[in-house]
Amino acid sequence: NRANLLAEGIARDAIVVTGNTVVEAVTELMPNPAARAAILERFGIEPNQYVLSTLHRPENVDVPHTLTTILTQLADLPMPVVLPLHPRTVARVERHGLGDLLGKLVVVEPIGYRDFLGLGADSAFLVSDSGGVQEEVSVYKRPVLVVRRSTERPEVLGTFAERVEPGPDISAVAQRWIDDLPALHARLAELPSPYGDGTASERSVDAIAELLRA
Fold it and tell me: Does residue 169 surpass a pLDDT of 90?
């Protein structure tokens, strides 16, 4: 991001790299172990034994063939897939007559942010087209399979995220991760988030104060 600003002609001394406040948000709002256990019990799932998925982008849910492909790939995974359905996706599933595919998934109502973080942190991995999820997984150290043609979060590609287009690569990458899950989780646990150390707000306030003094 700093390089992009410099390329646009922004003065070097006008840029302060602070990190991303998502690190603080995830750290502070993550449910405690007891609360996380209660969330899993509510959905009837076990730690590291399920996939968490979200879908909402037009490129994935507005085209019947694409949505069918993604839901079929999720349904074929060898572990339960928890799918909180975004209202937009619900409407598209109903419009395209894809309700039968949902019967093979653990479809739940949209859930709050804290519960979603807890589900993500205890999952085997995530499959999503969400930009925010790509940032969040780098804090709670889980891999996400990004189902999109492109992503604006290149910082996590090759570490916490792998991008594929809708199709058989979804199940192929997922199976590769499942076959190596403990080692994969261990590797990610050692990696720092590229979005900072959790002090972005403090750094931002300090930078603003310095600007005002100047």
Answer: yes
